[in-house]
Specification:
homohexamer; alpha+beta; 34% helix; 4 helices
Chain lengths: 155, 155, 155, 155, 155, 155
Amino acid sequence: MLAANTATDTITVLQANLDDMNPQVFGYVMDRLLEEGALDVFGMPAQMKKNRPGALLTVLAKPEDAARLTQIIFRETTTLGVRQRDERRQTLARKWQNVNTTWGGVRIKIASMNGTVTHYAPEYEDCRRIAVEHRVPLKEVMSEAVEAYLRGSSG
Amino acid sequence: MLAANTATDTITVLQANLDDMNPQVFGYVMDRLLEEGALDVFGMPAQMKKNRPGALLTVLAKPEDAARLTQIIFRETTTLGVRQRDERRQTLARKWQNVNTTWGGVRIKIASMNGTVTHYAPEYEDCRRIAVEHRVPLKEVMSEAVEAYLRGSSG
Amino acid sequence: MLAANTATDTITVLQANLDDMNPQVFGYVMDRLLEEGALDVFGMPAQMKKNRPGALLTVLAKPEDAARLTQIIFRETTTLGVRQRDERRQTLARKWQNVNTTWGGVRIKIASMNGTVTHYAPEYEDCRRIAVEHRVPLKEVMSEAVEAYLRGSSG
Amino acid sequence: MLAANTATDTITVLQANLDDMNPQVFGYVMDRLLEEGALDVFGMPAQMKKNRPGALLTVLAKPEDAARLTQIIFRETTTLGVRQRDERRQTLARKWQNVNTTWGGVRIKIASMNGTVTHYAPEYEDCRRIAVEHRVPLKEVMSEAVEAYLRGSSG
Amino acid sequence: MLAANTATDTITVLQANLDDMNPQVFGYVMDRLLEEGALDVFGMPAQMKKNRPGALLTVLAKPEDAARLTQIIFRETTTLGVRQRDERRQTLARKWQNVNTTWGGVRIKIASMNGTVTHYAPEYEDCRRIAVEHRVPLKEVMSEAVEAYLRGSSG
Amino acid sequence: MLAANTATDTITVLQANLDDMNPQVFGYVMDRLLEEGALDVFGMPAQMKKNRPGALLTVLAKPEDAARLTQIIFRETTTLGVRQRDERRQTLARKWQNVNTTWGGVRIKIASMNGTVTHYAPEYEDCRRIAVEHRVPLKEVMSEAVEAYLRGSSG
C-alpha cells in the first residue's frame, strides 16, 4: 500500500502536552532535541483545559533514539507524560548538486520519485550564510541559485 | 462612513505579548479582566523570537477602564509593556425574549439592523445550566430553544 | 471497546510537514486530494525549527487510496517524507431528508446513534447555492431550512 | 516616516470576534466580502472566554467601502460588534509581464522599489488553470513560469 | 525502547474534526469529557476544506473509557466520525508536599525520574483559590509557594 | 487614562500579510528586523483566501525606525503592502540584579510598578549559556537563579 520507488522506514513519534511551561524553554528544547538526533521537532498551538494556551510538542525520531529523546523531554520540559507511537514513513530519493551564484556556491537539494524530479530547492543554510555575509536579501540569493540550477539543467 | 442604524462608540484595545508566561496563568487572567469590566478578552497564538510559542493577549475595554485593566495586566502577567489604541465600534441593537423548553425557560438574544432581525441565539449560560441539571446534550437544549423561538415568531 | 450501534472501519492517516512551501500551493493541494478520493484534508499551523511558520498537512484516506494519495502529496508539495498510520474510525448512521424553504429545496443530513437522532444539519452546498442565487444571507437560508425540518419532525 | 518611492494610502481595517458561529459560514463570508470589494480578508484562530476556539475576522477595505462591508459582516455572521480603525498602507509599484510555458501563457507579477525589482511571482490563477487543464503539478507550472521569466530577463 | 524508571501504560487517543460546530459548545464538551474521566482534552486550530476555521478535538483516555467517551463526543458535538488509536505513554513518578505561604497552605507536585527531581510546581487550584480569596496576583502566590518549597528542600 | 508610574511612549506597529512566501524566509526576516532595531517581531497563523495557511508578520518599532524597517520587509519578504499604525505603549520600570548559581552568575530582570516589584525573571541568554556549557537542564538553571534571587531578597 506504499508509493512505488520510494524508501520506507519506521519512525517513532513522541508527543507531550505543555500547558504550564515558560515558552522561553520551548525554543531551547527544540534545539537540544535536534542536536541529540531528532529527525524533526515542532510545536502546535493547543487550547487546553482551564483556557490555557498551551503547545503540543512533537518529535520525530528513529526508533532507537526514542528512549533517549524521551528522557530529554522529561528533563527539559514540565511534562509529566510522553506519548509514543510508531508510524511508517516514505521518503523520496534525494541528491545534491552544486551551483554557482554571484556570491559563491550553493547546494541544490533534488528529490525524485520513480526517476522524475519532483522537487528541488537551494539549501537554506548556504543561502542564509551568503545573505548574511554579502548583505543581500535571502530571497534574492535563493532565486539566483534556482536560476543557476535551471540554466544548468536545461543547458 | 458607518452603517446606518447601529450604535457607535469608541473602545480601547489593550495588547500584551506573553512569551515567558506559564499558560496556567492565562485562563486566570482572562477571568480577572472580565470580572473587572473588560468587554472581551482573548488570546491568539504567536510565534515569537527564539522560537517561542507565545500568546498575544487582547483586551477590549471602555476607555474609562483602560488604566485599571492595564494595571491588572501588569500585576497578573509577565509582560513589561502594554500597547493601547482606540477603535470605533459599531454594535447592533439587541433585545431579549423568553421561550420555554421541556426543561425550563431560556432567553433568546435577538440582534437587528435597520429594523430587520439579523441574528438570534439562545443564551449560552441558560442552556448550559439546563444541560448540566438535566443531563441532556447542550446542543439539544440550544436546538429546542431555537425551535421554540421560531414557533413563537411565526405563530 | 467501541460505541454500540455505529459503523467501524479502518482509515489511513497521511501526514506531511510543510516548512518550505508557498502557501498558495496548499489550497490547491487540498482540492486535488479531495478530488482524488481523500475522505478529508486539513492543515494545522506548526512552529517548526529555525522559526518557520509551517503547516502540518493531514489527509484521511481509505487504506486502498493511501498509496495514490501519497504520490500526489509528493508531486504537489515540497515534502520529502510522508508519514502513515492506520486508525479505527466509528461513524454514525446518517440519512437525508428534503425540506422546502422560501427559495427552494434543501437536504437535511440526519445522524443517529442507537436509534436516536444526535445531530441534524442543512447541507452546506444546497444552502450556499440558494444564498448566492437569491442574494440572501447564508445563515438565514440555513436557519429557515432548520425551521422547516423541525416543523416537519414535530408535525 | 515612509519608505521612499512607494505609494501610500489609507485603508480601513474591520475586525469582528466570532465565538459562536458555524465555521462553514466563514469561508462563504470571505468570498462574499472579496466579491463586494474588500482588499483582503483573513481569519486568525483565537482562544476566547469559556474555552471557545473562535476566529478573529479581519477585513482590509478602502475607506469608502467600510460601511457597506460592515453591513455584510453583520448580515452574514453572528457578531454583534464590528471594530474599525484606519491604517496607512505602503504598496510597491507593480507591473505585469507575459511569459510562455509548455502549456500556455502565464502572467508574472513584478514588484519594484526605488526602481529595483524586489519580488516577482507567477500569477496563481494562471498557473492553477494550467495545472487543472493539463494535469501537471501546480508547482511545476509555477517553476517553469519562473524559469521562462528569468531566461527573458537575463537574455 | 522506553526510558528507565518511569511507568508505562497504554492510552487511547480519540480525535474528531469539528468544522460545523458553534465554538460555544466546545468549552462545554471539554468540561463534560473531563468530568467523565478523560485524562486530558484539548483543541487545535485546523484549516479545513472550503476555508473553514475548524478545530481538531483530541481526548486522551484510559482504554476502558474510550467507548463511553466516544458516545459523549457523538452526543455533544456535530461530528459524524470519531477516530481512535492506542499509544504507549510514559509517566514520571510524582508525589505531593505541603508548604505554607502567607495566605495558607499550597501543595507542591514533585516529579522525579531515576530518583532525581526533574520538575516541581505549585498546584494550580490551590494557588488560584488563594489568589481569588485574598485578592493577590496569582503569580505572586505561585512564586511564594515555590520559595517556601525551595527553603524547605535546602533547609 | 494611563496607569500611574509607568513610562509611556509611542511605537509604530508594522504589519504585512504573507500568503505566498516560503516559511524558511520567515525566521531569517525576524532575525534581520531585530538586528536592525525592531523592538519586537512575531508571526501569527492566518487563514487566508483560497485556503492559504499564511502568516501575519507584526513588527513593533520606534517611530523613527519605521521607514527603514518597512524597506527591509519589502526587500526580504514577498509582500506588496505594509500597513502601519501608531500605538501608545506603557512600560514598567525595570532594573537588573546579579545572582550566583552553582554554574556562574545570572542577571535577574526586575520590573516594578508604583514602587512594588511586579515581576522578576532570570535573563534567558545567561541561563541558556550556562545550560549549554554545563549540560544541565535549562529549567534547572532558571530555577536555581530564582532561588538565589529570593534568598537574597528575603535575607
